[in-house]
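Supplementary Note 2. Why include the ligand at all?

Several targets in our set were suspected to adopt different conformations when bound, so apo predictions alone were not considered sufficient. For every target with a known small-molecule partner we therefore ran a joint prediction. The input for protoporphyrin IX containing FE is given below.
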Amino acid sequence: YTWPSPQYDALEALLYEGRRSDGSSLSSLVHPCRKRTGTLASVPAEWLRFAFHDMATHNIDDGTGGLDGSIVYELGRPENFGLGFNQTLGDFEAFPNKVVSRADVIAIGAIMSVATCGGPIIPFRGGRIDTWTGGPNGAPEPQHDLATLTESFRKQGFNQAEMIKLVACGHTMGGVRSADFPDLVPPNPNSVNPVIVDFDTTMAFDNDVVTEYLDGTTQNVLVTTPNRTMASDLRVFEADGNSTMRSLADANAFQSECRDILTRMLDTVPRDVTLTDEITLLPAKVTAAQLTFEKEQLVFKSSFRLIQAINATANTRRTVTMLWCDRYGDSKDCAGETSTALPVSTLADDPNVSPITMKLGYYFLNYHFVVPIDSTASISKFWFRVDENDGSSPTIYNNGETSGSGNGYPVDQDQVLLAPMMSHVDVVSNGSYTKTYTNRNGESFTRLYTLVAAVRDGVNPSRVYVDATDVAIRDFPFAINAQVDLKQNDTAHAPLAGYTFYTGVVEDIGLQLSVDLHAVASEQTYTQSFMQTLLLDNTPYVAPSGVNTTASTGGALSTIAPALGGSWRSLLPLVVGALLGMAL
Ligand code: HEM
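The joint prediction is reproduced in C-alpha cell form.
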C-alpha cells in the first residue's frame, strides 16, 4: 500500500471506520447487532439476506451475475419478497460513490452484520462492479424441491455440502415473517408489525441453528412447518443424511466454515470483474489531505490516523507532528529547511466505530492539522513524526517507511485546487432545474453545487472543468456523470496569493457527489481526482496553526503554534446532522 489510493482509502474507511468521509455512519445502522425500529427485525439478518439474494443470480456456466448490485432492480420479484429488502436498500443508498460500488457496500454490510452479532471476520476484497439493470431470476424459494435447490446452488457455484453450510450460516440470524409468509407464520391481528419467528433461539451469529436442528428442538419454521412443501431448510439440511450439519455442531468449526463459505459468497462476481487484494486495516493512515483555500488563505490540511489497542491505555503524552517540504525556492524539497506544525492533541474515536475494528481489538486516534502555506514556497510532500515522550525515539511515518528519509506523502500538484469552503450547495425544489434530474418517485429536487477552483498563475488554462459523478441516488435509477465547465470569476472571488478563481454549477439529485477537477494547459492537463463534496461550506473551520521551520539537517524541532484543540470532534456530528437533514 502506498498513499494515495482513493479506492483503497475509501473502502478501508467504510469497513474499519464504518463511515463515509463526512462522518455519516453505515456501521451504526447495524451495530451492535441491532433490531430495526418499528418492525424489531434483525438489521444484520436483513443485510446478510440482501447480499445472498444479490449473489444468487450468479451463473457459473456463463460467468454472469453475482454480487453486482442487481438486487436493487429485482425487489418486485416473488423470490425477493419483503419489507426487509426495501429497508436495507434505504440503509445502503447514501454510501456508494465513484470508487465504492453499491455491490461493495452490500458486501461490507454483510461483513459488518456477521461480525457485530459475534460471527467471524470475513476478509473483504473490493472492486465489485455495479450493473444498472436487473438480471435473471435465481434466488431459491421455500417451495422449491431438493433438485431445484441443488441446481440453484450449483449454478451459483456451490456443491451440496456447500449449499448446506451456506444455508446454515445464513439462517443463524433472523427468521421468517408473517407479513411475507403468512402461511408459515400466522400474523397477529392485534399488531401492525409482522410476527417474526427466528430460525433459532438467539439473535447471535452462532451454531444454535445447527445444534437445535440436530437435537430436535428447532423452532425454524422452514424445518418444522407441517406444510412439507415449504420445509426447504429440512430438505437442504438432511440432503446428505445430516452429515454436514453434524460437522457444524462444533462451535469453532461453524465459525470457520461460515467464514470460508461466506467469503466465497461475497466474492462471487461476474467473470469479467477482478477483485482487489484483501483490504486490511492500515495501522497508520493519512486522510483528508488537501491543499486548498479557506477564508482567503492558502492552507494545507491533513489528518493522521493511528490505531490504539482497546485493552491498553492510550499514551496521553504522545505528540504527533506534521512536517513538510517547500515546493519552490531555496528550500525546495527540504534543501534548506523543513517546516513543522505543532503537535496536536489526541482526538479519539469511539471504540464502537466499526464492529470489524472492535473485534480486531482496536479503535482510532486522530490528529488533525491545518497550516498556512506561503504560495511562493508551496508544498511538495509531507510526513509525520510520532513521539511517545517516554524516552523512546520518535517514529517517522513516511509513506511506507517508518524511518529514514522515505518518499513522504506527495502533494502531486498545486496548479488547480478545489476550494470546498468557498463552494456551497443549494437544495432547490422549485422544479426549474429538475428537467435534467428527476428521481423515479417523481420527487423534483435538485442540489446545485456551486464549485470554486483556484488556478495558479502561469497555468493559463484553455479550459477548467469537472467530471462530476454521483451514484448514491434513491433506488439507483441511473448514475449521474456530468461534465461542467468552470469560468474565471474575479467578481465573486478576486485573485489572491498567485491564484485566480473559477466557478461552475453542477446539478445533482444524489447523496454523494465527487468530482475530478481538471485545468487544461498548453503543455499538460492538471487534475485533482476524486474530490468529495460532502461538507463544502459546512466544513468546520479550524484556523491554521503557526509554522516553525528548522534547518533540515538536524536539531530538535521546537514548535511555536497553538494546538487545534477539540473543535473538529465537536463540530462534525452537527454538520453531518445538518447534511442528513437536508438529504430529503
Ligand atoms: C435453500 C435456500 C434458501 C431458502 C429457500 C431461503 C428462504 C428464506 C425465507 C423464506 C426466509 C424468510 C424471509 C422473510 O420472512 O421475509 C429467509 C430468511 C433469511 N435468509 Fe434465507 N433462504 C435460503 C438460503 C439462504 C442463504 C444461503 C442465506 C445467506 C447466507 C440466507 C439468509 C437469510 C437470512 C439472514 C434470513 C433472515 C432475514 C430476516 O430476518 O430479515 N438464506 N430465507
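The pocket of protoporphyrin IX containing FE is lined by residues 41-42, 45-46, 48-49, 52, 82, 84, 140-142, 149, 166-167, 169-171, 173-177, 180-181, 232, 236 (CB under 6 Å). The mean pLDDT is 90. Comparable summaries for the other entries are listed in the accompanying table.
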